[in-house]
TrEMBL record:
Similarity section: Belongs to the LptE lipoprotein family.
Assembly with partners or alone: Component of the lipopolysaccharide transport and assembly complex. Interacts with LptD.
A Pfam family that the UniProt record links to this protein: LptE
Example GO BP: Gram-negative-bacterium-type cell outer membrane assembly
Gene3D superfamilies the record matches: Lipoprotein like domain
Organism: Massilia cavernae
Gene Ontology terms, MF aspect: lipopolysaccharide binding
Purpose: Together with LptD, is involved in the assembly of lipopolysaccharide (LPS) at the surface of the outer membrane. Required for the proper assembly of LptD. Binds LPS and may serve as the LPS recognition site at the outer membrane.
One GO cellular component term: transporter complex
Subcellular location: Cell outer membrane
Keyword Signal: yes
UniProt keyword Protein biosynthesis present: no
Gene: lptE
This protein's name: LPS-assembly lipoprotein LptE
Length: 173
């Protein structure tokens, strides 16, 4: 009986906390943030092994847009014009050794409708992240670099989804 009296206030506090979080509009990132696309099907012109293409497909399939394998069956075609990752020196220390790098991830794409008309002209998204470097921690810094590229990829997918959702399809007369 005593254990029940101790557990009851905790359960009540959890219920109040959960109610307060849902009442304020709190949502975890990526949940419930579905985008309403102006088309029901899309063809993504990414290579099969592209991690960016895979993540974009996964996010599109989470909504009500169908990702098709043949461009002829799609209402919209996502064409990748270029995709590149880069790493350049950002700063040096007093001995002339690298202290910081700048990681870049650039994607240029366009979106066309089934007839080939451009819905979204060539668009470039360029992401940059600085990373400090320490030659005594090379393996840790390589892991951090890979993590930053994955973070940029996730950010890139979210930006692509927002731009796709903002497309206004041409009205047919």
């Amino acid at each position: 009986m005593k254990a029940l009296r101790q557990a009851l206030p905790r359960a009540a506090a959890l219920i109040v906390l959960a109610a307060a979080l849902t009442a304020c509009g709190f949502q975890l990132r990526g949940t419930g943030g579905q985008f309403n696309m102006p088309f029901q099907s899309i063809y993504l012109a990414f290579p099969e092994t592209s991690p960016l293409g895979t993540e974009l497909k996964r996010n599109l399939r989470g909504g009500d847009t169908e990702v098709v394998a043949q461009p002829e069956k799609a209402q919209a075609r996502f064409d990748v014009l270029s995709e590149s990752r880069g790493k350049s020196i950002l700063s040096l220390n007093s001995q002339g050794r690298v202290r910081e790098y700048l990681l870049t991830y650039t994607l240029v794409f366009r979106v066309r409708d089934a007839s080939g008309a451009e819905l979204l002209g060539p668009t470039e998204i360029n992401l940059k992240r600085p990373i400090t470097f320490n030659e005594t921690q090379v393996l840790a810094k390589e892991s951090e670099e890979a993590l930053l590229y994955r973070d940029m990829q996730t950010d890139l997918v979210q930006q692509i989804l927002r731009r796709l959702a903002a497309i206004k399809p041409a009205k047919t007369a």
